# Entry
Amino acid sequence: MRPTQWTILDEQVVDENRHIRLSTVNIKLPDGVQFTQYVARMPRCAMTLVLNERRELLLMYRHRFIIDRWVWELPGGYVDHAEDVAAAAAREVEEETGWRPRNMEHLVTYQPAIGTLDQPQEVYLARGADLTNTTPDINEAEDIRWIGLDEAEAMIDRGEIVGAATVVAVYRALSLTDS
# Structure
């Protein structure tokens, strides 16, 4: 063990279901201090930044009750246990927007809040999509729109896009298209 590594003394599950495992973990720091921390573990999520030939991305406008705000974000959701992550990301796009991505390219994987939460987030890039006969899920979005990549960056600045996955994806896409 390295000298700065924290030691887990024990872990007690507080609650668990298919969407979250919440536990308390007793920790010992390298200097000997001990404390208890809440830890949440959630399933892997997959989101897709669908980009068309006009450098527009497909965004959904939705209400997020936890922060009680209307925001724009990428389509995405949980990956089922045995499901291929790219297939899950494409499935979510079609279910939530009615558009089917033409291809899937891994863009970035990150952890949104590693001090308390373990939830791998995988973002894919799809260059192009085809409109299908799939009716978007009424529980997912108020509006679905193609928005210019530069405008999406401005929406981040204005606080209209606040979700980590969408922010990360927009900046990553900008870094790829500006080079």
Residues 164-177 form the longest helix (14 residues). Residues 7-41 form one domain. The mean pLDDT is 95. The radius of gyration is 19 Å.
